[in-house]
Specification:
The chain is 4% helix and 42% strand. The protein is elongated. The protein is mainly beta and 149 residues long. It is built from 1 helix and 9 strands. It starts with 8 loop residues before the first strand and ends in a 5-residue tail after the last strand. It has a domain of 98 residues: Sandwich (Immunoglobulin-like), CATH 2.60.40. The strands form 3 sheets. It has a 4-stranded mixed β-sheet with strand order 1-7-6-3, with no helix packed on it. The chain has a 3-stranded antiparallel β-sheet with strand order 2-5-4, with no helix packed on it. Strands 8-9 form a two-stranded antiparallel ribbon.
């Protein structure tokens, strides 16, 4: 009654190239259906975060980011699991329910490749993969022949 039966939240990781380095919170999604609040006007509903309070916050029954998200360095990583407790006050009765909400953090293609073992790689130009070399101004342009797997 407090939560959607089946929902997958998705957000994009934050931009590392943010020039003013000011955090901008992002709306991740509604926690429950809005129709529930209209149909049950006499119910008092509130949500509490059980975990992941450093990453998300709840404002007006909606999940928002509270800090920057990075898919690659596990802040919080590609998946964030948030446990939320819903408290419903129905006249004199109090009901409570918890649910795990899954948030996928989508990766931006913002990381250049790098050598993980910091060794040098030798590339020999006499290999058969290099088929043509053209001199253009001060640069040599190499055309590669890629063989299908």
């Amino acid at each position: 009654m407090c939560f959607f039966d089946n929902i997958l939240y998705t957000t994009v990781e934050d931009d590392d190239n943010n020039t003013n380095k000011k955090f901008i919170k992002k709306k991740i999604g509604e926690i429950g259906p809005k129709s529930f609040y209209k149909l049950c006007e006499n119910f008092i509903i509130n949500y509490n975060l059980i975990n992941a309070t450093e990453y998300v916050q709840i404002l007006n029954n909606t999940l928002y980011s509270k800090s920057t998200f990075d898919h690659d360095i596990f802040k919080p990583g590609p998946n964030l699991i948030v446990e939320v407790q819903c408290n419903v006050n129905i006249f004199t009765e109090n009901l409570s329910r918890r649910k795990l909400l899954h948030i996928n953090v989508l990766d931006k293609n913002d990381n250049s490749p790098y050598l993980q073992d910091h060794n040098l790689i030798d590339i020999y130009l006499d290999e058969p993969h290099f088929v043509k070399v053209i001199k253009l101004f001060f640069y040599n342009i190499y055309f590669l022949y890629l063989m299908p797997c």
